[in-house]
Every structure is written in structure tokens, then in C-alpha cells.
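Sample entry copied in:
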Amino acid sequence: YGTQVISRRVRKQWYQRRVRGMAAICLKNGVTKFWRSISPNALCKEDKDRIKEIILGCHAEEKKEVFDQLLEVVGKIARYDFPKNWPNFIPTLLQVIEGAPSEEHKVRALTMIYKVVKMLSTKRLLADKKGFRETTEAIFPLIGSLWENYLRMFNSQPILTYLQPCCISLKIIRSMLTYGFEDISEHLPKSCLEAILNMAGSQLEHRLTISEQSVCQLYDKYLIVIIKALINVQEKLPEFFGQYIVVALEFAYKVGFQYAELLEMRLVARALHLLSGIMLCETYDVFKLNNRGKNVSSVAIKFTEDRNSFFTDDRLKDMCVKCISKYLKLSEFELRNWQESPEEFAFEETRHVSLYNIKAASEHFLLNMTATFQDIVCPYIVELIKECSQHDRSNIETVLMIDSIYSVTVICSYDLFDHIDIDGWFSTLVEELAQESPYCSILRRRILEVIGDG
């Protein structure tokens, strides 16, 4: 009886918003506790069918807070019942998308599919993985064509209505690319990958023409999904991705460096991770293949030439300077936090593990760049270190720049070891510790870190 009352409160639109919201929360909690048949007081089949009927119709829900709670219910039920005990869920939603009366209904139906796909992709038992692969093979072509249709409509008429379904459908594709194929090259339509790789640059150009803040945020989220998809393709299919390596590198460079000030930092961090992944991949490095005793094909040679033609000396130096001067530089917030709570600041500085953190991403990028292009980058960093002795320590901006340069020597100490005169620089650092200036504490902290690491 309780299930019937809650279901009625959720379904009937004329109830007050708060009542329906509380009913949706109760429904979510009830599904969490009593859905599994082995649970005490488990729900009977009739109650489960009634709840599933509500879920299949929640794409028409107008109240966001109610829909969000029902979306959580979708994920919980799908984790237990889909596809074995709920085979009609995704086919029904695909029919909704085809015949929905409005774009809002289609977006909600797509969101529900994404919630299920994301939930299923986290299951790790062999039987669950097999079931997810079967689901992926069945619906991937449909989702791919749906994304291409929305992308075509958005390119012809770039309005916000088409951007959100583009983003959601691409999220579904990315989850399936990552977890839904045992051998991705046998099942994946290359036209979909080519579309992702080819349209990345054009979507960035669209983003740079937008000035409205809310639209910019949504577009940045879409570009983040694009870069995530590119990273997954590069990891799963490095040889196929190598055909588009120049396009991908140009796109990542524009996002990470050329237009970084106009974009969200989470997006810039992802672009740096894409550049790092391409630099580290042995498929694009003949030297690494030779060291590991692997055969070097003509394709690998071409990939290496394409990669090296992009990473020219000037571009490598430019990326190094921008990482040091923009991403590694201490901000006003960090300086204030250091003064107020040094222990908390030190803890936060050493725990940058998030892929979205720009400082962690730039440190990872610089580490990989110095390792891959050691003969070019390391001598340039040594030049920057030598120039530090000529700078005035009374200017805060100069001191922060020196602090960033010194931090690079800690990050890349392994590769810089053979390029720096350790004994000569050590005596210089000791003398610098004794200097008095308004901002000497900033450099002293970093100098002690450099000496400790050396």
C-alpha cells in the first residue's frame, strides 16, 4: 500500500512540488533498501512493475528536482534488473526519442539512457561485462547516428537546444568506447570516430565566438567530453588515432595554450592530458620501439615524423614558458592560504591528483615533455634558471616567476640532473637564502625544497 501511495504522489502533476519531491526521495530510498529479492521485506513483482512504469514515463517530468531523484532510481533499478529483467527499457526510450513531442522530452530520455550506460559500465563481474558489451553492440550504431544528426543540426543552426543532446549522446558514446568493446576495432564504425576527431576544431571555433556566460559553460562541458573521447580513442586505438595525430595536436595546443585564457581551466587541463598521452605513446615514438626490441613499421615512422614536426623547438619552448608563467605560478589565493594556514597549504599542494586540476596537469605535462624532448627542453630550463640570478627580488611578480622556475627543477629533477651544475647552483641557492627582501619567504620555501630534492 505504501508503494501505491508514493507512486501516486510522484506521478500526479497536480500535487505540490515539495510533496512530489519528497515522494520521489522516498521512492529512491525504498528502491535502495527493498529492491533486491534477498532484502528483508523485499518489493513484490507487482510493486516493481508499477515503479518501472513510472520510470519509463519520467521523461515527461517537468520538475527538475523530481526528475533528478527519479534519475537516481533509474540507475539503481538498472544495476539490478537491466537487461535481464528489464529488456524493454532502452528500446522504449529510443522510441520516445524518435517520437517525442519536444526536444526537452528527448533530452530527458537521452539522460536516462546515459545514466543506465554509466551505471552498467562500472560493473566488473565477467557476466556483467559481457552483458554490457552485448548492449553496446546493439545500441551503439543508433546512438552514433543520433549524435551525428544532432551535430549536423547544431552546425547548421547553432542554438542551445541542440547542444545539450549533442553533449549527452557523446557522453554515451564515450562510455561505450571505453568499456563496451572487447576488441574495439572489430565493431566500431570508423565514421563515428572520424566525426569526433574532425569536428573538434570547428567546435572550438564556435565556442570562441560565444560571449554569453551560461552558454560558454555548457559549451566548455561539451568540449571536455570531446577531449575525453579523444583521450579514450588514443588509448584504445593508437594506430587509428595516429592518422589524425596532427589535427588532434593542433586542437589540444589551441585549447591548452593559444586560447586558454578564454576557456575553463578544467578544459585546459584535459587538453594538457591529451598532449601528454600523445607524447608518451610508444606507437608514435620510433626510439621507444627500438629500445623495446619491437619492429618499426613505416606507419610508426610516419607517426613519429608527424609528432616531431608539430613539437618544434620554438613550440616546445613556448609551451614550457606558458606552463611556468601561467599554470605553475602561485595565485593570490594560494599565497593567502599559505600565510593563514601553512600546514593546510602544504597538504593541498602535495595532493593535486585530480585530472581537472590545472597545476597537476601542467606538472604532468612538463614532466613528460622534458622526458620525451630532453635535448631541447632541459637546456632551455637551465637558461631560465641562469636568468633568475639577474632578476630583481623586490617585485612580487618576478619572485613568483622565479618560484615557478625553481618548482620545475623539482618536478623534472630526474631529467635535469645531467644538465645542471649542481655544485655551482647549490652555492648560489645558499647565498640566496641569506638575502633579505619583502618576499624572501616565498623563495626560501622553494629553495629548501630544491636543495632537499637535489
